[in-house]
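Q: Could you predict the 3D structure of Heat shock protein GrpE?
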Amino acid sequence: MGRKIENQQSEQYNTIDLANIKRVEINSVSIYLNMGLMWNSICLVGVYNKCFSKVHTSIINKFGDQTDQMKQWEKSICSIRDTMDLTIEETYYVIRGGQDLMSEHDAYLTEVRELIADLQPIKILDSNDKEEDLNFNGLEHSIKEIKDEVKKGNRVSFKSIQEVQQAVENLLTLSSETNNTNIKSIIEGYDKKIESFLNLTLKAVDSLNMIHDFAKKTNLHEWVEQISEITNDFLHSLASFGIEEIEAEGMFFDGEIMISIGTAPPQVAPHLEKYQVYSVVEKGFRYSETNQLIREAKVITIY
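A: Sure. Here are the predicted structure tokens for Heat shock protein GrpE:
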């Protein structure tokens, strides 16, 4: 199942070796933490691939008989796709811990799903080297939820992942000084991975918005609407990851979740009042369960 992956520790990242995971200490909270994030990353790429394919098909249908325009669009689309593919590779590299990547998306998805399903209940060693069940702060429920959602082929809620992350941080108060060093390393490694995942998410959104902005310049309203629907489908899919777009357009400016990068005169939007958002230049996002900010929305306001 899957190609052989070199079992090599990375100094920069907390490595997870898919081929040898059952031979390492699977009674570790960090295994669940990292595997849940790995699963979400693969799912996100799958959703993006489908949306991008729909965009590409719509371009072919619209400009297939217009050679010059088709060439221009193909060039632009290929450039955007190449940039995203590089981001995907970099994200997988970080989350896998610097290991070789799997080229087959479906095979990778199947492999990770089966490995998560086979993970054993979490246990830790106390200071007397006695094995004890780890069950606090709803951790047991979160682990079960991760396994159940993966089994059904669903994305893992970031609420569950964050609860497991909190459990890792709680271990700092329960472990010896030696173990604390290892736990801090796990936390730092995971922070790098979640940062990489969020970077992938934001770049995926921005790439689809870029295509939408290009489309609006054509004044082909029906086609622009198609691209808009595809982009919205991707945004809606983020809700299953526990990520939501910050509602900004038409709202009064909020410095905690928005950044103003310009203003517009009242004449362009008579229905809006001073300090209301006229347009969104870059979408902002937050975790839906906790409202924790991921990225501020960049906006134009009425002066």
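Q: Anything worth pointing out?
A: Strands lie at 123-125, 131-133, 243-245, 258-264, 277-282, 285-287, 293-295, 297-302.
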